[in-house]
Amino acid sequence: AQSVSQHNHHVILSEAASLELGCNYSYGGTVNLFWYVQYPGQHLQLLLKYFSGDPLVKGIKGFEAEFIKSKFSFNLRKPSVQWSDTAEYFCAAGSYNTDKLIFGTGTRLQVFP
Amino acid sequence: DVKVTQSSRYLVKRTGEKVFLECVQDMDHENMFWYRQDPGLGLRLIYFSYDVKMKEKGDIPEGYSVSREKKERFSLILESASTNQTSMYLCASTRGTSGDYEQYFGPGTRLTVT
Lengths: 113, 114
Description:
The complex is a heterodimer. By secondary structure, chain A is an all-beta fold. In chain A, strands 2, 5, 6, 10, 11 and 12 form a six-stranded mixed sheet that branches. In chain A, strands 3-9-8-7 form a four-stranded antiparallel sheet, with no helix packed on it. Chain A has a two-stranded antiparallel ribbon with strand order 1-4. In chain A, a hairpin with a 5-residue loop joins β7 and β8. Helices cover 0% and strands 52% of the residues of chain A.
């Protein structure tokens, strides 16, 4: 069955710490991968996406993610977090020729000054 | 800039009531989606639509129906609301053009069924 797993449910960091959020997917065939973010009180918005090509993808606000096909992973990284990165982060996957996505359960990130 | 709007941010309904949640997008997108978001469960797809009057069940369609009479509007209907349908409901849309699968989300409707 198709699925997306996020290993960290709640992450607490101090400002300037490095961040890595795990995401693994189970999907047959070619897959599109996404990270979405939901800031407190705001709607979900796209952080970055991977369809093909360079497996290291850069997104908004200094975030990046690396697609590792052999590990079925698409981990999100940021070298130095800020208080404003406090949010919930969702990994999502979909087959290459469809708009339908499966979302992970989300990771709540809290950054303290 | 794509805008997806939802008719209410907060809604309180009684058990057994019929509930309508409305979603409108202003960018002529082909595809629209309804999710519910629950803590620890992430987003789960209820229904989606690839065209006017077309709909497909998602992962959790039980207790819900949808309507898409116009391209820009996608309604979620709870025929007889129950307490286990208390949740945050999110609407999303996609352009539908091959190669662009980004979903654009509305602000959500937090529904409480008492």
